[in-house]
Amino acid sequence: MRLRERENEERCAMRKHELVLELLRQRKSVKDIEKFITENG
User: How distant, in Å, are the alpha carbons of 4, 25, 26 from that of 39?
Assistant: First the structure.
């Protein structure tokens, strides 16, 4: 069970990284990216 939870957390973290990279590709400001991170934990 713990392995499954850890894998899920890793997938969520990877998805967040992908979203931040996409924001960078769209040339969003650092402020916008920080806001996204804050709102999406």
Answer: 25, 20, 19
Instruction: Break the chain into its structural domains and give their ranges.
Output: 2-39
Look up the pTM and report it.
0.74
> Helix, strand, coil: what percent of the chain each, to 5?
85, 0, 15
- 2-29 residue pLDDT tens: 999 999 999 999 999 999 999 999 999 9
Distances (CA, A) of 15 to 18, 40, 41: 5, 11, 12
Residues 6 or more apart whose CB falls under 8 angstroms from that of 37 comprise: 16, 20
